[in-house]
Design goal:
CATH class: Mainly Beta
Strand order of the largest sheet: 4-3-6-7
InterPro entries: Cupredoxin, Phytocyanin-like, Phytocyanin_dom, Plantacyanin
CATH superfamily: Cupredoxins -  blue copper proteins
Strand content: 15-25%
Helix content: 10-25%
GO cellular component, one term: plasma membrane
Pfam families: Cu_bind_like
CATH architecture: Sandwich
Shape: globular
Number of helices: 2
Order of helices and strands: HEEEHEEEE
Number of strands: 7
GO molecular function: electron transfer activity; metal ion binding
Protein name: Plantacyanin
Structural class: alpha+beta
Distance between the termini: 49 Å
Radius of gyration: 21 Å
Number of domains: 1
Length: about 120
């Protein structure tokens, strides 16, 4: 191959590889829709086709609530007993990985019991 045609050929090959690469951008879901992460949000996820790669957005008043990713046992009991991750920004974005269920609660006293919890299967 002559030097003059090698550079354009490499550029075309590089462009073809870039075009063939698929970038997956998940859908963004605001938990609780326009109500946000608040009391009674439990069940919000029902009937939604939430997939791996999608992003859950938890919007809430950070002086009144938090959001904690917990295991299933803590979700069911509304008591955080095992190590977990607590979010407190008021605008938390969680990208879902493939497989299994993930569980989220507000662990301030009484909030989970008042329906501030969701379980998502991606």
């Amino acid at each position: 191959m002559a030097r003059g045609t090698m550079v354009p050929t490499l550029l075309v090959l590089l462009l073809a590889v870039c075009c063939a690469t698929t970038v997956v951008h998940g859908k963004e879901w605001t938990v609780g829709d326009n109500k946000g992460w608040s009391f009674g949000v439990s069940g919000w996820e029902s009937g939604k086709h939430i997939q791996s790669g999608d992003v859950l957005v938890f919007k809430y008043n950070l002086s009144m609530h938090n959001m904690v990713q917990v295991g299933e046992e803590d979700y069911n009991s509304c008591i955080v007993s095992s190590p977990s991750r607590t979010y407190t920004s008021g605008n938390d974005h969680i990208q879902l990985a493939r497989g299994g269920k993930v569980f989220f609660i507000c662990n301030l006293p009484g909030h989970c019991q008042q329906g501030m919890k969701i379980a998502i299967t991606a």
